[in-house]
Amino acid sequence: xxxxxxxxLTVSYGDTIAINDISFTLEPGVIGLIGPNGAGKTTLIRxxxxxxxxxxxxxxxxxxxxxQEILKVRAIVGHMPEREVVSPKVTAVSFLVYCGRLVGMSxxxxxxxxxxxxxxxxxxEARYRPMxxxxxxxxxxxxxxxAILHDPKILILDEPTNGLDPDGRLxxxxxxxxxxxxxxxxxxxxxxxxxxxxxxxxxxVVLKKGKLVFSGDLQLLIDSRVNHYEVSVQPPIEPFKEExxxxxxxxxxxxxxxxxxxxxxxxxxxxIFHCAQRAGTMVRSxxxxxxxxxxxxxxxxxx
Length: 303
Ligand code: ADP
Fold this sequence. Notes:
This protein is of the alpha/beta class. Helices cover 36% and strands 28% of the residues. It is built from eleven helices and 14 strands. It has helices at residues 41-48, 70-76, 92-102, 107-120, 136-148, 166-182, 194-200, 218-223, 238-246, 270-278, 293-301, and strands at residues 4-13, 16-26, 30-34, 56-61, 64-66, 77-80, 154-158, 186-191, 203-208, 211-217, 228-233, 250-254, 258-262, 283-288. A six-stranded mixed sheet has the order 6-7-8-3-9-10, sandwiched between helices. The protein is elongated and about 80 Å long. The protein binds adenosine-5'-diphosphate. Adenosine-5'-diphosphate (ADP) binds next to strand 2 and helix 1.
């Protein structure tokens, strides 16, 4: 059984369908949840946390079925929400002790663990100051600290680098990497920043307008692009496309009349130039297709 299984999941807010019949499976590791605003990322997270009941479908997380076993799931999940959760007049230590008490720790355990995780996220003396004096980066660290307080098996991070300057962003990504790799915590990173995902994640789930665009192993996806080329020819491009079809060369149309071609095994690059010749046109540009996530998905995720 997969670590996370989602089958035919549909979630709605009244008449608005936020997640529309999606299915995927995920294994332990760092998982990127990506998609533009309104894609359904937050809704999926809220459904995993049991805040919303699906209209239909099945979710199994680490062997527990939702919504029936939601308390068991909550016990093993830490959540760093996108919105602010801290009280401005309270110190980070008091806030974390309160969070620890909420999940059932004794006062002494909660205090000890609060100091441990605040050290871990790099909040030193500041932990005794009211949080209204904190920078955005420090507040993000407090949110991360509360998410790992109860030593979860799964960590769900909603836009963890939001509002951070470039240095703060790198520090936050480094912290997440350490937690995931050294502590073996399966981490779901929801973000619209594709480079963050490419740096950290081994698997991805891509959503757009509530539909699944892609799910699976990121490296396999990138490797599968080895025989892909981006080509543009002098217009008109229709005869060129017909020649490609005749040769059994598959292609996808990108903006600005660029074609992303997949060369089947046994067909050499020069065949593309021959296709252009036969179509009475000329190749204007020819280059290996980009392997970055942004290049793979940007055009699909744009409105
Ligand atoms: P994302 O996190 O990817 O930006 P959301 O899950 O927030 O996407 O939103 C998915 C869809 O659900 C959007 O169309 C959004 O307008 C709608 N939606 C989100 N929250 C609510 C809500 N509380 N009530 C009604 N519609 C909502």
